[in-house]
Amino acid sequence: MNTEKLNFTVPSKTKKLSFILMAVGLLSIILMFVFDKSNEELHYHAHTRAWSNIFAGAFYFMALSLAAAFFLGMQYAAEAGWATTIKRVLEAVTAYLPWGLAFMLLLFILGQLQVHHIYHWMLSGVADPNSPNYDSVIAAKIGYFGIFWWVRTILYMIGWWWFTNKLVKNSREADALDVDVNNSYHWKNVKLSAWFMVLFAVTSSTSSWDWVMSIDTHWFSTLFGWYIFSGMWVSAIIATIVLIIWLKKLGHLEFVTESTIHDMGKWMFAISFLWTYLYFSQFMLIWYSDIPEEVIYFQTRWESYKTLMWTVFFVNFAFPMVILMSRDSKRNFAFLMFIATIIFIGHYLDVIMIVMPGTVGHAWTGLSWMELGCFAFFLGLFIFVVTRALAKAPLMVKNHPYLDESLHHSI
Amino acid sequence: MGSAVAKTKYIIHGVFNDEVPLLEACKKLRASGIRIKDVFSPMPIHGIDGIIGLPRTRIAICSFIYGITGTCLATLMMWYMMVHDWPNDVGGKPNWNYYMAVPAFIPITFEATVFCAAHGMALTYFLRCWLVPGAKAKNPDPRTTDDKFLILLELVDEQAKKAEEILKANGAEEVNHKGSYVVPPAYTLEESH
Q1: Contact A280 B91 (CB under 8 A)
Q2: In chain B, residues 33-52 whose CB comes closer than 8 Å to chain A
Q3: Which chain A residues are closer than 8 Å to B92 by Cβ?
Q4: In what order do the strands lie in the sheet with B149-156?
Q5: What is the pLDDT of residues B1-30, one digit of tens each?
Q6: Hey, which of A182, B120, B131, B156 would disulfide with B66, CB 3.0 to 4.6 Å?
Q7: Which residues of chain A lie closer than 8 angstroms to B47, CB-CB?
């Protein structure tokens, strides 16, 4: 095996690309705040769309790096061998997690300081009957928000970051040993992952309610957590596939077999269906029961976001279904790259569609340069952080009991 | 074009202990132009169909046809029951046209599609392999249901010798001769006169 190719250095082209994306993104974020004016008629506050865009970008990339950590932990907890050769790529994707969490925290603090109004329940006086901002529905459940919400938020952040950091650290420390006697580092990670799965199972749902569903504070949906989770999971898989194919093109990752990539393609296919299932279930149950306080959620979307709603559904469902169905297409890198790029954008649009109706509401005028610019900024940052993390460790893990199995993975 | 002479075909069993030498032997046999009749194994071997030269399976096409049939049947059934014969008012959903309440019909359409595709494929498989009740096992050597791997060859004399050499050279534990049969000469126009 060519040992030189095991060490990755960030190509200057990639670095340049990430800086250009960030610069363009930053410029459009500044312009966003200049051009995003209030609209009295539609009860629209200035800069709401700009803040919502930043929220969407921050949340999407944070969520996908978190899902990558979950996917990594799942391989340990399930004692799965096939993904050992791509472990370093997954680890690199998780490197964005602290960045994403920092952005989220910043947004939350600014919200609490009344700088933006993404969260209705953060509005001062919302639970005070004498305030003009009083809202009886929110006042009835204000105990769940406020301090309790902040405690949960901080716990999620610490918990996720601690587990992810520890998993990656153990994996890197195992590299330094000549022989890992009794696979001690591997077993450490297995135990860690089992606990992480428990934490993630609960917090992925509750954090979706707290951070995303609470944008529409009046509304609730019990399967919302899984819906968000499936979306972030498939995005994490896509990011990993794109990175693997890109590294393979650069001549690295020769040891990753076609079957491993085929398996990743299957994951992308399967989780796209999971997402569709949850998306449709949520819609159908609300449509069927026809309860006004639930239907309002889709009414806003149906009236002002119809194109986006259908686009998201078809791009994230029909495309992967038709194109990824056959075995050959999952083994064709060009196909995989094409479909991965499209549904990566599709799931970003899904986040836009989740966030915007609750904040911008009927003042929405359709997708514009604002969404594109903000996406560019976070994508640039993501590329920068992830490629830098890839360069920090050899692309192949050294002391892992399933490495040999993974190198010979064949289906 | 068939040959006008009767040919004798010899039945050969190449028995292996493991699938790796078996696959190697299969590759060598095919490279020297020998047709592999079949391979028997206690467990599925991934990718063997390409190696022993089996044509691509058409079960996917069957599956698609069965699935579409299921979709159509479900749609027809629900349209007849819920819209045409006795319009049902469920939860105040409009029922004078099928498309008006289509979200409610999607789960059933989906289930019926999966039901028909799965059962159709299973039945096709059973019939195609003739795995019907009372069918006799066609296993040439019962040990292949336990821990042995077997290549079944039916070859004319000159090829049979070459095949035996290849099998032995690639780690076959046993090469068993299981008799022969005669292929009658092909019927040609000239002979009938």
Answers
A1: no
A2: 46-47
A3: 290
A4: B38-40, B149-156, B7-16, B174-183
A5: 455 678 888 999 999 999 899 999 999 999
A6: B120
A7: 410-411
- Residue B158: pLDDT above 90? no
Identify the segments of chain A with pLDDT beneath 50: none
Domain B7-42+147-192 has CATH 3.40.30.10: no
**pLDDT tens, residue by residue, B73-103:** 999 999 999 899 988 887 788 888 888 888 8
* pTM for the full predicted model: 0.88
ipTM over 0.95: no
Tell me which amino acid residue A237 is.
I
Quick check: B188 pLDDT over 80?
no
Task: Mark yes or no for CB contact A288/B46 under 8 Å.
Answer: no
Residue bearing tokens 């000159």:
B158
Whole-angstrom distance, CA of residue B105 vs CA of residue B85: 16
Do A410 and B106 lie within an 8 Å CB cutoff? no
Angle at B50 between CA A409 and CA B183, to 5 degrees: 145
For chain B, the domains span 7-42+147-192, 59-128
Minimum CA–CA partner of B61 in chain A: A326
Q: Which residues pair with A44 in a beta bridge?
A: A39
Q: Is A322 on the interface with B (CB under 8 A)?
A: no
Residues present in chain A in total? 411
Rg value, chain A, Cα:
22
Residues near A350 by Cβ (< 8 Å), separated by ≥ 6? A231, A312, A316
Identify the closest residue of chain A to B94 by CA–CA distance: A288
Each residue's pLDDT tens digit, B24-66: 999 999 999 999 999 999 998 888 888 888 888 899 999 999 9
Q: Write out chain B residues lying below 8 Å of A410, CB-based.
A: 46-47
Interchain contact A288–B (C-beta under 8 A)? yes
Query: What SS3 class is residue A180?
Result: coil
Helix A48-77 and helix A184-207: axis angle, to 10°?
A: 140
Tally the residues of chain B.
Answer: 193
Residues 6+ apart with CB under 8 A from A290: B91, B92
